[in-house]
Specification:
The chain is built from eight helices and 17 strands. It is an alpha+beta fold. It folds into three domains: about 25 residues, no CATH class; about 100 residues, no CATH class; about 200 residues, no CATH class. The strands form five sheets. It has a four-stranded antiparallel sheet with strand order 7-8-9-10. A four-stranded antiparallel sheet has the order 14-15-16-17. Helix 3 packs antiparallel against helix 4 and helix 3 crosses helix 7. It is globular.
Length: about 350
């Protein structure tokens, strides 16, 4: 048996011998079209698309599901261009580690696509094949974040509700930040259990198997599956964002908006100093929480950046400070960052 290359096709050649002795041998050629599918396309649990080759996890180019046809069109144009071509596609979603994908064809005909700190050299056939894959993706239904997390009128600092089916629990903004952190931590585990006790409320985040999660608040349990947990994470993030932006809007943009913002910052500083007294960490904690507050409610940061800063502030209080100060500081934060009509 031997292999030949003829006109771009791989020839598998082999001989068949007749059962009866004969001097004659018959040569049979089977023509196999070349395989060009060297790039994978996957639909992730969060609904985004991953494009890569021989990689795992997040080491891939990531785009939104709704961007597939636009990227496919860019790939087809790339394959049709003979030499010296460069196109930058700016993502319309915030998935992945970057905000653009670069399509290039060099003088010598080589083709490269790069983005999200990844780059792949491809043939024309591979580019066309990838475009076809992106144009014929199966339909995907990702539950909207609002199905699981909804904003509610603030009452006793409770401003969000987590719901799945008939069961629901009301939570504070600070609790949402720590619950989201716990669930994100659990995603890469086989088993996970974390007990949170914040300002007298008992919460448990548990992953009991590959497919089952649960959130309990003061004995009330809401269950989620692996197919729902990514939307739950997004829902918690967006719920925190909505509540924070209500506060930012309430501070206004008129001439005295800066005074209102400074008043909120001063409240955090003075109340933190009262809570911690003459503790050796007081000055540093006051300074840190003041910086977080300025970034969350002041300046021109986008909503996602404000949300990330709020979550980081809650993580800082929960993980870095002496336990005696955690509850009163969480109570302060939960009350300060919620706009009460």
């Amino acid at each position: 048996m031997f292999h030949e290359m003829q006109k771009g096709f791989l020839l598998h050649s082999f001989y068949l011998r007749p059962r009866q002795p004969s001097a004659q041998q018959f040569c049979v050629h089977r023509v196999i079209a070349p395989t060009v599918k060297t790039m994978y396309v996957k639909i992730r649990r969060d609904g985004a698309l991953g494009i890569g080759r021989a990689t795992e996890g997040s080491a891939e180019i990531t785009i939104g599901y709704g961007e597939a046809h636009m990227v496919a069109a860019a790939l087809e144009k790339l394959a049709q261009t003979a030499r010296n071509y460069r196109q930058v596609y700016h993502k319309t979603t915030d998935v992945g580690g970057g905000n653009k994908i670069l399509f290039e064809r060099f003088e010598d005909g080589r083709i490269k696509i790069s983005g999200d700190r990844q780059e792949y050299f491809m043939t024309e056939e591979e580019v066309r094949d990838l475009a076809e894959l992106l144009k014929h993706l199966p339909p995907v239904e990702v539950a909207p974040a609002s199905d699981y997390v909804q904003k509610i009128p603030p009452e006793n600092e409770l401003c969000l509700t987590v719901r799945n089916g008939p069961n629901s629990v009301a939570i504070k903004l600070t609790e949402a930040a720590l619950i989201k952190t716990a669930i994100v931590s659990s995603v890469d585990s086989r088993f996970y259990e974390e007990h949170l006790r914040i300002d007298g409320r008992e919460m448990t985040v548990q992953r009991s198997s590959d497919l089952k999660w649960s959130l309990s608040v003061d004995g009330n349990e809401v269950k989620f599956t692996a197919y729902e947990v990514e939307a739950l994470i997004a829902g918690l993030h967006n719920g925190i964002l909505d509540v924070l932006m209500d506060l930012v809007k309430s501070l206004g943009s008129d001439e005295i908006a800066d005074i209102r913002i400074k008043s909120q910052i001063q409240r955090i500083e003075s109340e933190t100093a009262k809570i911690m007294g003459d503790h050796r960490q007081t000055k540093n904690v006051v300074k840190t929480l003041s910086k977080f507050t300025k970034r969350i409610i002041g300046g021109k940061a986008d909503a996602d950046a404000r949300t990330d800063d709020f979550i980081e502030m809650c993580k800082y209080i929960q993980s870095k400070l002496d336990r005696e100060f955690v509850d009163p500081l969480m109570r302060l934060i939960a009350g300060t960052f919620v706009s009460v009509p």
